[in-house]
Sequence to fold (458 residues):
Amino acid sequence: MTRQPDATAGTAGTKTAPEAAPDPGAEAAAICADLIRFDTTNRGEGVALPERPAAEHVAALLDEVGVAAEIVESAPGRASVLARIPGTDPSHPAFLVHGHLDVVPADASDWKVPPFSGEVRDGCVWGRGAVDMKGSLAMTLATVRARLRAGRRTRGDLVLAFLADEECTGEYGSRYVAREHRAHFEGCTEAISESGGFSVDAAPAGDGAGARIYPVATGERGTAWMRLTARGTAGHGSKPAPDNAVAELAHAVSRIASYEWPVRLTPGVRALLDGLADALGTTIDHDRLDEEAVRLGRAGHLFAGTVRNSANPTRLEAGYKVNVVPGTASAQVDGRYLPGTGEEFLATIDRLLGPKVTREFINHEEAPAADPAGATFAALAGSLRAEDPLARPVPYVMAGGTDAKSFNAIGITSFGFAPLRLGPDLDYFGMFHGVDERVPVDGLAFGTRVLDRFLDTR
Fold:
């Protein structure tokens, strides 16, 4: 942990010049490496290493610059950090920056470097969470620390939340603080968090020169994790079994897996397609979006998973012995649906299940959406352009989900904005939950500058 130098320290009878404040970009890289070294692996369903040590480290970094942070626990060791920094104008709306401390598992045997080493190699900080999302937390901490050292505050209160359990359902993190610590978020109507603001180098249709696109998330698909259950008549495996629960479930799962979901162009996705077409100097055929996603390469990845709903079977369970027909069989399905399509999605699932298979939710969260034409999106885009004149910010709808859903439930709209300038060779999407996850040191420096500019608008 970096302690601030004592400007009055020195040899007796001599004067020493105060040490310069650390560069925010360099400090972001150091904080990122330190955070990676805290193993906060979340295996889901309440099976996780405690976030408490990492939370204490974050709280100490804030304490060093005069911020009184509170560590709250939803269960032993499942810790989140909450802080509120008063602004210069008490009548101005507060603004939330949130992110998560936990990470998904990593098998060290698959990695070039130990995944919890925080090693700096080839200009990158390596390790689980470098992108998702300890690098983003580090940028936030470095930016806030630099601003407070310089006596610079936002106009409204700046509210911070460093959270547990995002890599599962958020029940031990964002859901818990939104429910049990609602007063901490008083006055907040908007927020920023992960999965947006990163650069995507893409070749336009015209002269072949690079186009630097920065997707800023204005929404994400809703979550419908479901448990399916088929019930039949138990019996001997050698006898006819017309009421076979395993067979009924298998048929239902097959129907779901093979169903071709229709394209549903929501306002957010239409805005993305228009922005990409403009940035790339091309047209995008809305009637052939699967082919267009392939044609546009990395730019196509931005909409390939968000033009339709999806439902993927992920787990199956039935029986205990080969010669016994079980009375029940179950499966789990990861369902995702676009904003405004929740009822249609569930009606389709019910039709595919048929009359002999029931469903229940393991996790159900509505699809949040933000305004891509509003003042906050404009400020985010302007902060990117100020640091990269070639930046082409576009609205973006995420295929997956974040803690934004929990805050959306209490009236706080989140934008995905963890700004990074990336080289064309780094597969950013492949870094999420992938092997050899890493983030460029100069990308973190870029992100701190962008965040600093954006906070000036709050």
Summary: Residues 1-15 have pLDDT under 50 and may be disordered. Residues 134-149 form the longest helix (16 residues). The chain is about 30% helix and 25% strand.
